[in-house]
Amino acid sequence: MRLLKGATVWLAILAIFTVISFLVDPKSYKFTFDPSTFGILLILSLITFPIQASFEELFFRGYLMQGIGVLTKKPIIPLLVTSIIFGMVHVSNGSNMTLSGFPVIEATIMGLMLGIITLGENSIETATGIHIINNLYVALIVSSEGSILGNVPSVLTAPSDPYSSILWTTIFAIIALIVIFWGKKDKLLDIFRFEDAKNEKDIEDIQY
């Protein structure tokens, strides 16, 4: 259910933005759907991206974040470290060395969001759902010109704008966090408390 929740929330955010953006400036999108090759892209995407995204979440938000958290006892440290590393491994997503920094920043923002969700829920399922649907969406529905995927026969192709991409990724991440943690502010705040403060809060909860 959490996997489905993450996928649904992120898909809704991306879809709403795409519809609004298309209505505002339809000329910025190209209809690139090719029925003769889309089926192959669909099959490959449904096989590849769930495995790839699940592995990344298991490694970064599962194994690595948990390991660093055991050593530091402060959730904010593994959150920042794993997000930065997650961003750095996406340096090859840029079409050239000049633009390679933008995917790193964008992936780091995504890593922060996924890490916060993982820490707040104490599980990786919601984050995994978001990661899977994000990769499927940019491959099948709206791809970007000059992306690492190349000229794939997605339904639509949008021009690459690294500056606005970072801005919108940040906005989407904030919206996703608000939706997922709606009415669960304490779980979100616990991420940024030191271990001693969290233990004191737990003791207070037991006493009351």
Question: How would you briefly describe this protein structure?
Answer:
This protein has 208 residues and is mostly helical.
Explained architecture:
With 208 residues, the chain is mostly helical. The chain has one domain. It contains 8 helices and 3 strands, in the order H-E-H-H-H-H-E-E-H-H-H. It has helices spanning 2-24, 35-72, 76-88, 101-121, 125-141, 162-180, 185-190, 195-207; strands spanning 30-31, 142-144, 156-158. The protein has a 3-stranded mixed beta sheet with strand order 1-3-2. Helix 2 (35-72) packs antiparallel against helix 3 (76-88) and helix 4 runs parallel beside helix 6 (162-180). The two termini are 32 Å apart.
Which helices and strands occur, and which strands form pairs?
Elements: H1 2-24, E1 30-31, H2 35-72, H3 76-88, H4 101-121, H5 125-141, E2 142-144, E3 156-158, H6 162-180, H7 185-190, H8 195-207
Helix pairs in contact: 1-5, 1-6, 2-3, 2-5, 3-4, 4-5, 4-6
Q: Give the end-to-end Cα distance, rounded to a whole number of Å.
A: 32 Å
Number of strands: 3
Work out the helix count. Answer: 8
Biggest sheet statistics:
3 strands, mixed
Task: Going across the biggest sheet, name each strand in turn.
Answer: 1-3-2
The coarse overall form would be globular
Percentage beta strand: under 5%
Structural class: mainly alpha
* Backbone CA Rg: 18 Å
H/E element string?
Answer: HEHHHHEEHHH
Q: In percent, how helical is the residue content? A: over 70%
On the 0 to 100 scale, the average pLDDT is 85
Spans where pLDDT lies below 50 across 5 or more residues: 199-208
Number of domains: 1
